[in-house]
């Protein structure tokens, strides 16, 4: 809590029961409800003392009802429970205030104006507030006119004029509050959305920095240590060759992480880069470069194209990134000498690219998280290759920006199939 709030007993009470992580709108509701208690409860207690001293027992009974309502309201504030009943307490207190003002002509109707201020925040829907305010205003006008001496002797024109003099300022008051709520809450919602987006961005930045600090430091440190060992004259040629292989492995690990980070910072699909291509021919042109990556594990890529041409509009570079990531993943999690199958199918709405491997598969409990960035679903490749948890997230974002879908079918130790659906032109 803000130190300024802690040192001020009134502010401390106004923020009572409001969690630090509460939304802006919920925070304002709690603040206004506490303000309503702070203003109304002391008057009810003071009135009870006065009425008891004057032996006015029925007004004292009304004060007891008011104090009971305020006590329940205070319990709701402190406990954080039954918040949905705050408006019911407000309505009960409004009815009690109307009865007291009508019965005793003690100017208690002016409490309705305070309750209208509280109601504009506590009611979630504008129409709910309008109904409440209309009833409260009608009661206020009736009570004020009832207190006018010789009201029955006034002409109809004077009655209407007198009623309008009382009603129109209150109507302006009610509408001004409603307008203020709409504008204020709209700005609060925009601020909350912006704050939420900023929190997500900050969290992603922290995750990226953490990944870089942890995962990039390790391979670079390995390269530095191994390089120092190679400079020793006591190593055989075979040992040096083995160390060079380790340097190559560490540098590739660092390069893969950097590539993933760079891809994550540039995944926006621009409509101006979309062009109509024939999917079978396009994928066939990517196979040689994909096979080069698979050759590192002596893995063969087999393809099955659709029987008819498939013309589709896409950002070619981004979709190539998707397929490359999927094939690289398939290679990473497949054993040496296995096969990867790439198949193209289509129906009336979508073209489908399916990448299937014979690898280690994905446990069922991890499948729903593998498209989340930096999720805990990362796996280790069959040769110890590191997974940084960003590739599939990037694929998902790119495919969805094409108004398509990506999903997985997998069984642990029996391989995985990733299906990319892209809408036809």
TrEMBL record:
SUPFAM superfamilies, A to Z: ATPase domain of HSP90 chaperone/DNA topoisomerase II/histidine kinase, Homodimeric domain of signal transducing histidine kinase
InterPro entries noted in UniProt: HATPase_C_sf, HATPase_dom, His_kinase_dom, HisK_dim/P_dom, HisK_dim/P_sf, Sig_transdc_His_kin-like_C
Name of the molecule in the record: histidine kinase
Transmembrane segments: 31-50, 56-78, 85-102, 130-147, 159-180
PANTHER family: HYBRID SIGNAL TRANSDUCTION HISTIDINE KINASE C, TWO-COMPONENT HISTIDINE KINASE
MF GO annotations: phosphorelay sensor kinase activity
Its EC number(s): 2.7.13.3
């Amino acid at each position: 809590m803000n130190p300024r709030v802690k040192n001020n007993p009134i502010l401390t009470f106004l923020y009572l029961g409001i969690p630090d992580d509460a939304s802006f709108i919920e925070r304002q509701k709690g603040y206004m409800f506490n303000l309503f208690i702070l203003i109304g409860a002391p008057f009810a207690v003071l009135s009870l003392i006065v009425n008891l001293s004057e032996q006015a027992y029925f007004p004292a009974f009304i004060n007891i009802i008011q104090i009971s309502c305020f006590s329940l309201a205070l319990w709701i504030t402190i406990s954080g429970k039954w918040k949905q009943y705050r408006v019911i307490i407000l309505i009960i207190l409004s009815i009690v205030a109307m009865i007291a003002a009508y019965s005793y002509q003690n100017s208690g109707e002016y409490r309705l104006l305070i309750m209208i201020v509280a109601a504009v925040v506590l009611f979630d829907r504008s129409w709910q507030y309008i109904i409440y305010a209309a009833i409260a205003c009608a009661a206020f006008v009736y009570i004020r006119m009832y207190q006018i001496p010789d009201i029955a002797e006034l002409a109809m024109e004077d009655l209407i004029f007198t009623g309008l003099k009382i009603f129109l300022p209150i109507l302006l008051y009610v509408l001004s509050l409603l307008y203020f709520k709409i504008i204020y809450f709209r700005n609060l919602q925009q601020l909350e959305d912006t704050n939420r987006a900023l929190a997500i961005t900050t969290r992603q930045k922290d995750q990226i920095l953490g990944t870089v600090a942890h995962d990039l430091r390790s391979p670079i440190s390995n390269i530095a240590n191994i390089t120092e060992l190679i400079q020793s004259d006591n190593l055989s040629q075979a040992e040096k060759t083995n160390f060079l292989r380790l340097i190559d492995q560490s540098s590739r690990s660092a390069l893969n992480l950097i590539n993933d980070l760079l891809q994550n910072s540039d995944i926006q699909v621009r409509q101006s880069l979309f062009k109509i291509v024939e999917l079978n021919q396009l994928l066939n042109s990517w196979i040689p470069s994909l096979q080069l990556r698979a050759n590192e594990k002596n893995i063969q890529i087999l393809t099955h194209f659709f029987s008819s041409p498939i013309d589709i509009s896409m950002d070619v570079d981004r979709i190539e990134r998707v397929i490359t990531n999927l094939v690289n993943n398939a290679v990473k999690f497949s054993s040496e000498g296995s096969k990867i199958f790439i198949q193209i199918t289509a129906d009336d709405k979508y073209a489908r690219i399916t990448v299937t491997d014979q690898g280690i598969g994905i446990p069922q409990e991890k499948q729903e998280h593998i498209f989340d960035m930096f999720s805990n679903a990362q796996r280790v490749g069959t040769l110890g290759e590191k997974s940084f948890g960003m590739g599939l997230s990037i694929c998902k974002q790119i495919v969805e920006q094409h108004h398509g879908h990506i999903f997985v079918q997998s069984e642990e130790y029996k391989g995985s199939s990733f299906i990319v659906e892209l809408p036809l032109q």
